[in-house]
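Example for tutorial group B:
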């Protein structure tokens, strides 16, 4: 398209994300994949869990995309979230977990609204689901050819954050005590295990090796993020375990390994986004880094993820339930759509994942985007319909 033929929104979008779901090949053959591959030619069954807020807008959008690329795909609607808690007294009904375990090969999760104050009996269902289904790796790619560095140069970024998903402060062991002055003092346990650190580094190393193999340079960079200058026991264990995994793999020459303290990692993300490749991090650091990295993509509404475990895969946009825009019809469906693409890629449907990726790229290049993306004026429905049309073209 010539620059004169571009719409104004397309021009505004020119510096925004081209985050794709295809760079992440299946990390391993999951049990779900094996189950699916060995069963028959039938399509995998996917559980859809919208949750709360814009989950009810972006998951129906992703449903349309799944139904377009794999007509007849069995989809099961499942409950979880704060509204479910208010209605039933539990945020993650046992029936939801049971159906996922017994009937589904994968799932797509929207987002839940977790209150910032303590609500008796409530616990975040996404944190619980990741543990229940042993989804120990959260893989979060951020790709934007138009990302800028701190010098204002358009250097682009193509990075993936591999977030440990089961422990760290998310073990949620907190207690409130009273100090000698009669004032409250709160404590939280931060759990870092050798097992979880090993599993997540093995996943990140596999990914780094895949990326190296796919490049003409034949190399990649694995950055181990921690804060072991302060937390020498917990983050020290994470760092040492990551190094041991690399050594046990024979210190592959295609992958360079390095350390980065978490605070300066954020600085580096924005100062030199093109210097970041594969990042492996404990749970909370990975969560914060991936929202920060989403800014490089242009909007949280563009960034997908896959929660991966030995026997299950769950796609999930990086964003939350966005109560500030919920119900307005303007939630960006792209993160959820790309998460559906990552889910399909992990289930062995690489062609369908690539088609989704390309359709999203086409729509964004035409300037059809929701308002969270600079210049975007379209509704959730407009964007979704445009992606469906691009898939059918
Ligand atoms: P958020 O990700 O929901 O929203 C942050 C900002 O990004 C808001 O301005 C929002 O409008 C915007 N945004 C997010 N997704 C968007 C999309 N698809 N399209 C357009 N704009 C989008 O984070 P926030 O506000 O910190 O949390 C809101 C709620 O979400 C909280 O209750 C939190 O607990 C929950 N949350 C849930 C997560 C999950 O279920 N996995 C993850 C993160 C937060
Ligand atoms: Mg987050």
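The residue assignment follows.
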């Amino acid at each position: 398209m010539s620059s004169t033929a571009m719409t104004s929104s397309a021009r505004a979008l020119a510096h925004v994300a081209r985050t794709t779901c295809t760079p992440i090949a299946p990390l391993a053959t999951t049990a779900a994949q094996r189950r699916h591959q060995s069963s028959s030619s039938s399509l995998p069954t996917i559980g859809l869990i919208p949750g709360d807020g814009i989950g009810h807008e972006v998951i129906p959008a992703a449903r349309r995309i799944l139904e377009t690329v794999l007509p007849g795909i069995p989809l099961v609607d499942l409950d979880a979230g704060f509204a479910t808690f208010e209605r039933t007294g539990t945020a993650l009904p046992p029936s939801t977990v049971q159906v996922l375990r017994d009937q589904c090969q994968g799932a797509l999760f929207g987002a839940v609204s977790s209150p910032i104050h303590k609500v008796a009996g409530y616990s975040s269902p996404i944190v619980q689901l990741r543990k229940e289904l042993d989804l120990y790796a959260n893989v979060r790619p951020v790709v934007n050819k138009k990302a800028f560095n701190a010098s204002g140069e358009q250097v682009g970024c193509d990075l993936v954050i591999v977030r440990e998903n089961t422990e760290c402060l998310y073990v949620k062991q907190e207690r409130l005590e009273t100090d000698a002055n009669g004032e409250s003092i709160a404590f939280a346990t931060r759990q870092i295990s050798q097992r979880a650190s090993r599993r997540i580094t093995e996943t990140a190393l596999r990914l780094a090796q895949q990326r190296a193999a796919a490049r003409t340079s034949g190399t990649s960079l694995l950055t181990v993020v921690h804060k072991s200058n302060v937390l020498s026991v917990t983050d020290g264990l994470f760092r040492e375990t990551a190094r041991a995994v690399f050594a046990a793999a024979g210190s592959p020459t295609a992958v360079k390994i390095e350390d980065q303290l978490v605070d300066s990692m954020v600085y580096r993300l924005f100062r030199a986004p093109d210097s970041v490749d594969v990042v492996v991090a404990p749970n909370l650091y990975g969560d914060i880094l991936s929202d920060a990295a989403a800014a490089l993509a242009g909007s949280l509404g563009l960034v997908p993820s896959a929660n991966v475990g030995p026997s299950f895969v769950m796609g999930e946009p990086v964003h939350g339930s966005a109560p500030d825009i919920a119900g307005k019809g303007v939630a960006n469906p792209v993160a959820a759509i790309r998460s559906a693409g990552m889910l399909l890629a992990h289930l062995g449907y690489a062609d369908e994942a690539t088609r989704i990726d390309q359709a999203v790229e086409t729509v964004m290049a035409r300037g059809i985007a929701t308002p969270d993306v600079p210049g975007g004026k379209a509704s959730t429905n407009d964007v979704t319909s445009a992606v469906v049309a691009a898939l059918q073209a």
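The mean pLDDT is 91. Compare this with the pattern of hydrophobic and polar residues in the output above.
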